[in-house]
Give the backbone structure.
Amino acid sequence: MKMLALGTLGIAPQTDSQASLLPKIVESILGPSLYQPRVVRVLEAISHPCLIAQAKKLLYMGTTKSASADRRRPVLCKTELKNENYTHLQSTKAGRRGVRGRAPVIVALTGFMASGKTTFGRAAAERLGWDFVDLDEVITARYGTPAEIFAAHGEARFREIEMQLLEETLQADRDTVLSLGGGTILRDENLALLKQHARLIWLDTDFAIIISEIGNADRPVVRGRSIAQIRALYDERRPRYAAAADIIFPINTTDYEQVIADLTATIQSL
């Protein structure tokens, strides 16, 4: 089921009855004692996936008062989940391979160029204790930069290399955050591989933020294009990203610490 990660929740209730329970869960967790593993125990007994994910996420958060607004803001922090039944909730530098016998989780980040896939993905992976792989960096280490490949061999050859290394990367045996190139999912074969081996999150970053980040970066797809032409390409690709994504993660703020915290929690809920 496709989910829209809104605000700091990162979870979309599946029914109205589930949504009505969320405020009570939140109030319970953020009450007199912030960390209440018993809440998770109750929810696990109910076997309610949406609410379990919400409770686990909040167990990893604290709240601080913003100087500019009177609102709650999540801050990821290390919690004292000492109960041996819940130590699996804590991330480790060794990754989570083999936890409860499950297969490794691969979360792939897609989106337009300069949408933050590498920056936010690397930061989220670090906080979770997962591996991080940037597909463009894998390509560069083996064949040279995308710009060099485009110039010497053309886009078609670049896409062949990209598909080959994507298939190799998706054989990861540890929990991994994977940053894709902006055009990776445009190829049907790539999308089929991703659907088979990964969960796909679209970083739906506001165009104004993207333009401010592109700057003078050497990106072959935008070389020689005007802002209007880049905008046209951005608009052209959005439906493809939306149709492919398992989760849509909007980014319309330059509060990047907030973005990283929300993205980390969203990945952790999968």
Q: What stands out?
A: The longest strand covers residues 199-205. Residues 3-89 form one domain. The chain is about 45% helix and 15% strand. Residues 114 and 210 are 5 Å apart (CA to CA).
